[in-house]
Specification:
It is a single chain. It contains three helices and no strands. The longest helix has 13 residues. The protein is elongated, with a radius of gyration of 15 Å. The chain is an all-alpha fold. The chain has one domain.
C-alpha cells in the first residue's frame, strides 16, 4: 500500500490519474463512489447514507491533515539519492 507521506504534493491520483487534487479524490469517495462487493463497509454504514458524507468543513480539515504529512526533509534526501 502506498504511503500517505507527501500525498498533497502529487499531481494526479487514483490508478489512472483521473483526479488532479485531493479535493477531487475526497469528493469522489464522499458521494461518487460506486457500490460493489469489494467496497469497504464504512462507505455503506447504516444511517450515514452512501459514501463518506463529509461536510465541507470536514473535507477542508481532512485536506489540511493530509498536508501535515508533507515531509520536506524526506524530499531533500530523496533528491540526493542513496548515500
Amino acid at each position: 500500500m502506498p504511503t500517505l507521506r507527501n500525498a498533497a504534493l502529487r499531481s494526479s491520483f487514483m490508478h489512472d490519474g483521473r483526479f488532479k487534487s485531493l479535493r477531487e479524490v475526497i469528493e469522489h469517495y464522499n458521494s461518487g463512489a460506486k457500490n460493489s462487493p469489494t467496497l469497504d463497509a464504512i462507505m455503506t454504514k447504516p444511517g450515514k447514507g452512501f459514501g463518506l458524507c463529509l461536510s465541507e468543513n470536514e473535507i477542508d480539515t481532512l485536506i489540511a491533515f493530509l498536508h501535515t504529512l508533507t515531509d520536506e526533509d524526506f524530499l531533500s534526501r530523496e533528491e540526493l539519492g542513496p548515500p
